[in-house]
Amino acid sequence: MKRSFRNKSKRIFHKRLPRIGSGDRIDYKNMSLISRFISERGKILSRRVNRLTSKQQRLMTIAIKRARILSLVPFVTSDN
Question: Which of 14, 47, 53, 67 would bridge 73 by S-S if both were Cys, CB 3.0 to 4.6 A apart?
């Protein structure tokens, strides 16, 4: 029984468009930047949705968590 494998070398990689400007610093105090990466319910958006690199996503996650601890951003909002 033979298995067919896809050729991994034919993958097309799309260049990620920068969602963070060169002058923007990922910081817990930068609320205008942080609010773009949080959903309406207060959850952190995925890297695929954010179009960030893995390093940027890690830094953004840390900044959002710090802002939550300092109550600059709510943990999760519930709309009942």
Answer: 67
CATH match for 31-70 among 1.10.10.1100, 1.10.490.10, 3.30.390.10, 4.10.640.10:
4.10.640.10
Amino acid letter, 28: Y
Average pLDDT rounded to a whole number, residues 2-14: 65
Going by pLDDT thresholds of 50, 70 and 90, the confidence category of residue 51 is confident
Between CA 70 and CA 55 the distance in angstroms is: 23
- Counting Cβ atoms within 10 Å, is residue 22 exposed (0-12), middle (13-18) or buried (19+)? exposed
